[in-house]
Amino acid sequence: MARRSRALFALAAALALAPLAGHADPPTIRLAWSVMPGELAPVIFASKPELAHHNGKTYAFTPVHITASPQMIQGLAADEIDIAAFAFSSFPLALENAGMTDLRIIADETQDGVPGYYTDESKVRNDGGIARIEDLRGKVLATTGFGAASDIALRAVLTRHGLSPTKDVTIIQAAYANMPAILKERKADLVTAIPPFSYDPELLAISRTLFTGKDAIGPTEKTFWAARQDFLARNRAAVIDFMEDFMRAQRWFYDPANRAAALQIVSAFTKSPPAYYDGYIWTHRDYFRDPRGIPNLGALQHSIDVQVELGFLKAPLDVKAYADLSLVEQAAARLD
With 318 labelled, which of 35, 48, 97, 278 sits at a CA distance of 20 to 30 A? Predict the structure, then answer.
């Protein structure tokens, strides 16, 4: 009788706790982002929550601002983010230097130099006397961060034209937003320009493009999402739901019928007028973004091979060994 009573008590306790378990908080998904509106993470759900069918139910989304791609490594190591937006330059460093061999590429974010779409520009002053790459000898060159994609592209161009990035030029770091002013004030002889800053009227008036990201390395998988395997294993269903919601919302932003409203959302976040973005954003004057979230692993492999060839990386890297596209493929299939 005592044994039966204990069993009944255990069953009653389990039934009492069952409703509580059903109301457990959903796992948090912290996605890193660097540049707005190039990355929509900070506004993707905030202004159109109805597009995120699963947010707050199967997952809880939190965007986390990190200034540049190389700092994504630190964010993952410190458990400050769950999904990093890596550039082709910083991802191999996470594997080689930080030992994060459990990282997996899971989705596309932006692609540079895709035919018919935008490619990063390295700009010089019209009156700066720089006509060729070789004319950069002894000059000051501005990049967004050592090891960032634009930094690697710059170093690749210099190396291929017989200039040492460490001896023949001085490379400084600056935020993309400050690049137009830096060139205008002659604090650097070359700056890296990306949208929307590359379309700044004052920058366009005083500068010309010396070379592009496509010239330097070819079409690239500029930025992509990556996460650690243990996080993906614990939260696979939640991540798929999040990807589904993110793609649904991104497609809303890209729909011409929603353009005016979408521009207002971006404008409210950045405090710049909608007209500042209207001439390029989500058009062929912008980066290419795969509508199904599939990264171009071939382009990514080529970019990494170039870094190995130029001595920027210690050893070759097989990109496919560090990719798991099954989650984004499953999420995209729900929307197709």
Answer: 35
Q: What is the model's pLDDT at position 70?
A: 79
User: How far apart, in whole angstroms, are the C-alpha atoms of residue 92 and residue 302?
Assistant: 13
Cβ(219)–Cβ(112) below 8 Å: yes
Bond into 195 cis (ω within 30): no
Predicted TM-score (pTM) of the model is 0.86
286 Rama class: left (phi>0) / alpha (psi -120 to 50) / beta: beta
Is the domain defined by 25-114+220-335 classed in CATH 2.60.40.10? no
Which amino acid appears at position 291 of this protein? P
Tokens 């596309």, residue? 108
Q: Is the dihedral of CA 214, 220, 225, 226 positive or negative?
A: negative
Distance, in Å, from the CA atom of 242 to the CA atom of 107, rounded to the nearest integer, reads 12
Cα separation, 299 vs 314, whole angstroms = 20
Is 1.20.1630.10 the CATH number for 121-217?
Answer: no
